[in-house]
Write a structure and sequence with these properties.
It is globular and about 70 Å long. The chain contains 24 helices and no strands. The protein starts with 10 loop residues before the first helix and ends with a helix.
Length: 355
């Protein structure tokens, strides 16, 4: 049976979850006809799906199956959602990719739920979990399981190796295949590896973009940090520090900046305009539906020549007429994107002409 919530939202939900409600009330709840909030109702339904009474159990299962994916995503993306609900849908083989992605991104999702989900994750869902970098740092076992997922891409495996190299000592392999002998570079003495880590950071020409002397000093201070220290700083960085760290060459540092709880819309707008960030940062921003609701972020990504062309071309159609005309004549925008903007303008004009 499900673990009872510590603080039930309503007395009626509490009575059902604690087993104090009579059979008719539980049956009504299983049918979804009680006056409960959406969060309470789903909590109760998950609980009743394990009910001893077959009639109640079947009704609850049917009502759960009727909940739309949009409603489920709204629920399971909320950190305040019951862990029982997150575990139920995380472990459900038929859950949609959108629901699974929301559960992977939720910081409240139990580790046990993630352990069960990881072996069946798709490449896109592996990306979702890699974005939750703090979880993989705090729980090495999850990273070890993720490394065994055969669906991971070469780029994803590189990300995993980077996290392990900087934050975890490698455990004994979880399979019986012989490991290849390490290359000579991997056996370099510790000071050499430390020196290499310290060397990572914004290039000198990028530091020149930081006009304010205080920012320049901060950039020089950050350059002296190891990758692990930069990741820890990124989770609590000031806005100025985030602007410096997002330029770092390490994907772990970049991901930590984008996962910073203090990140603002203004930060994302600024990142979307930068030509000194990696294309991976820009691709990640473009893939975040919440950030892309901000039109200024959309426009900045479309006109940033560093944005991958396929990403920019997919965004062009969402621009307003004035900005489309700007893109057509902006010499800084890649030619393919400018041609796409012209096609969108011509298509819109043709549609208007038919009317």
């Amino acid at each position: 049976m499900s673990t009872l919530p510590e603080t039930p939202t309503s007395p009626l939900a509490s009575a059902i979850l604690e087993g104090r409600a009579p059979g008719p009330i539980k049956l009504s709840a299983a049918r979804g006809v009680l006056p409960l909030s959406r969060a309470d109702l789903v909590r109760v339904l998950v609980h009743l799906a394990d009910e001893d009474d077959a009639a109640i159990r079947d009704e609850a299962a049917g009502t759960l199956a009727a909940i739309t994916d949009d409603d489920l995503v709204t629920l399971v993306v909320d950190p305040g959602t019951s862990t029982d609900v997150l575990d139920h849908f995380g472990g459900m083989p038929g859950a949609s990719p959108a629901v699974r992605s929301a559960i992977l991104a939720n910081p409240s999702t139990p580790d046990d739920t993630l352990r069960r989900m990881i072996p069946s994750l798709s490449p896109a869902q592996i990306d979702d979990l890699l974005l939750n970098q703090r979880r993989l740092i705090d729980t090495p076992e999850l990273l070890a399981l993720l490394e065994l997922n055969p669906a991971s891409t070469a780029l994803q495996r590189s990300r995993m190796e980077e996290i392990r190299r900087h934050f975890h000592a490698r455990p004994e392999p979880m399979h019986h295949e012989p490991r290849p002998a390490p290359k000579a570079v991997e056996t370099a003495p510790e000071p050499a590896r430390e020196e290499a880590a310290v060397a990572q950071g914004p290039a000198t020409e990028e530091i020149e973009e930081i006009v304010d002397e205080e920012d320049r000093v901060a950039a020089q201070r950050i350059m002296r940090l190891t990758t692990a220290e930069k990741v820890k700083l990124a989770f609590r960085a000031t806005r100025e520090e985030r602007t410096i760290l997002i330029r770092d060459t390490s994907r772990s540092v970049q991901s930590a900046v984008l996962d910073c709880p203090m990140l603002t819309d203004q930060d994302i707008e600024a990142f979307a305009k930068m030509r000194s960030v990696s294309d991976e940062v820009l691709r990640t921003i473009a893939g975040n539906r919440n950030w892309m609701k901000n039109y200024r972020v959309l426009f900045s990504l479309t006109t940033n020549p560093k944005t991958p062309i396929r990403v920019s071309m997919n965004l062009v159609a969402q621009l307003n007429p004035r900005d489309l005309r700007y893109v057509v004549v902006d010499k800084n925008v890649p030619e393919a994107v400018r041609r796409q903007a012209r096609k969108v303008i011509d298509a819109r004009n043709a549609r208007q002409g038919r009317h």
